[in-house]
Each structure stands twice: as C-alpha cells, then as structure tokens.
Amino acid sequence: VEKIPEISFYEEIVSKKPVFRVLAQDAAPTNLPGTLSQDPFEGLVLVGILPGASPQAILENTKTQRTFYLSSGESSDGVQVEEIGGDSVTLGSGLSQKKLSL
C-alpha cells in the first residue's frame, strides 16, 4: 500500500506557487487619461435594431464576444449610443463619433 504524503508536503508545494495572484495585465486599468488607448469603437458591430417607442441597438464586441442591448443615451465599455436610426446607430466616445450600419 502506497503511503499518502503528509499535509506539510502539499503546503510546501502550494506556498511556492502564486495560486491566488492577480496578474498585472488583468488588473491594470485601461483608457486612463494621458495614456495611449486603442480605438474605442474597434471590434464593435451593429447586429440589429429593436424598433419601438424606445428603440435599442444590438451591438456585439467581436474582441470580447459580448453582446449589448443599448438605448439612446446608454453606454458600455466607454462608448455611448447617441442616436438610433432605422438601419444605423451613431456612437460616441469622448470627442469621437462613429456611425455603424446594418
């Protein structure tokens, strides 16, 4: 019968590995004032528009594989929906604007 190691054996192994360490690249804030940032609209695609009294733009971020349902005035990831048309949406971020069409 094989002997099972004492708990101290496992404690020593775990103590040498950063099991609960947060990676600096994951914890680093992005888009800080005074830093170089990427195009805030990069990867955004207009997937559809839900018409009605309060229309919603269906946007997909192809970089993060996330989909958003946003009304005019709402924002996500630093980009705000400024206007929703029948087949397009105007987005804003800071002083930049971009129009996406279906």
Give average pLDDT, whole number.
Answer: 81
- Largest beta-sheet details: 4 strands, antiparallel
Helical residue percent band: 10-25%
Q: How many H/I helical runs?
A: 2
Order of the strands making up the biggest sheet? 4-5-6-7
Please trace the helix and strand order, writing H or E for each element.
HHEEEEEEE
Distance between the termini: 68 Å
Q: Beta fraction of the residues?
A: 35-45%
- How many β strands by DSSP? 7
Structure commentary:
- The chain has 102 residues and is mainly beta.
- Helix content is 13%, strand content 38%.
- The chain has two helices and seven strands; from the N terminus they run ααβββββββ.
- The protein has a four-stranded antiparallel beta sheet with strand order 4-5-6-7, with no helix packed on it.
Record the SSE blueprint:
Layout: H1 7-15, H2 24-27, E1 44-50, E2 56-61, E3 66-71, E4 75-76, E5 79-84, E6 88-93, E7 96-101
Antiparallel strand pairs: 1-2, 2-3, 4-5, 5-6, 6-7
Key features of this structure:
102 residues, three-stranded antiparallel β-sheet, 13% helix, single chain, 2 helices, four-stranded antiparallel β-sheet, mainly beta
